[in-house]
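Fill in residues.
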């Protein structure tokens, strides 16, 4: 299991937004997280990559049954100095892109590889690989302001893939995009998932769940619950009717 949370409270600014969360992600899973604005979805992702630390687990507290593990790292005992090691094994895609505006697509990606210690001789090849995967190899020398929103998001996905992560965490990657562009973005993420990388994606676009089925968690009223069957049922019924 790549991610496993049991009995975890997700808190932000001293406010508990999700109580006693149970959440699991296996290799090759495609996970959707849905729910209303402000319910704690983004806080959950921030907890997974360590931006929102969990209250530490103390050895003497035998009554503390919480469990929080991401890629073998115990988030309840993880020291800050080890956080970069975890993050290098994760890819994060933000809704607002967070590209360096004064650098080309190529330079944005090169900056990440240099910062994470990728050998110089391997950087160009890896940049070419990820840009080809997202269909942006011809835009390598464009600046972010010269790209459409969908193109910028594809660059963000390429950036997230640079270190060959085992998990992609995507926070509303289609939130500001039209539906056709959104479909292309999720299709790219599905291709990545088929290659073995797990994807955890927050979305409000429920139409995408029918086009690209996955495991669905609903985050609402302080609870995180798996509701996959609620979203898969209409598709299954439609397919059954076609067969009759």
């Amino acid at each position: 299991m790549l991610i496993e949370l049991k009995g975890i409270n997700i808190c932000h600014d001293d406010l508990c937004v999700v109580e006693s969360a149970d959440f699991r992600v296996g290799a090759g899973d495609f996970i959707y997280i849905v729910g209303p604005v402000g319910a704690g979805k983004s806080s959950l992702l921030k907890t997974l990559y360590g931006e929102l630390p969990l209250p530490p687990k103390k050895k003497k507290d035998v009554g503390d049954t919480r469990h929080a593990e991401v890629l073998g790292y115990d988030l309840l005992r993880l020291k800050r100095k080890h956080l970069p090691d975890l993050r290098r094994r994760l890819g994060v895609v933000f809704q607002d892109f967070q590209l360096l505006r004064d650098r080309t697509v190529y330079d944005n990606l090169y900056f990440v590889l240099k910062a994470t210690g990728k050998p110089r001789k391997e950087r160009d090849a890896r940049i070419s690989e990820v840009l080809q995967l997202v269909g942006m190899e011809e835009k390598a020398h464009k600046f972010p302001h010269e790209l459409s929103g969908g193109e910028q998001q594809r660059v963000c996905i390429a950036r997230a893939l640079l270190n060959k992560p085992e998990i992609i965490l995507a926070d509303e990657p289609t939130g500001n995009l039209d539906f056709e562009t959104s479909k292309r973005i999720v299709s790219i993420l599905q291709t990545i998932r088929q290659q073995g990388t797990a994807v955890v994606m927050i979305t409000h676009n429920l139409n995408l769940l029918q086009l690209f089925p996955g495991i669905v968690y609903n985050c609402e009223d302080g609870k995180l619950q798996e509701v996959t069957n609620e979203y898969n049922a209409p598709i299954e019924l439609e397919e059954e009717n076609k067969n009759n």
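The first strand starts at residue 3 and ends at 12.
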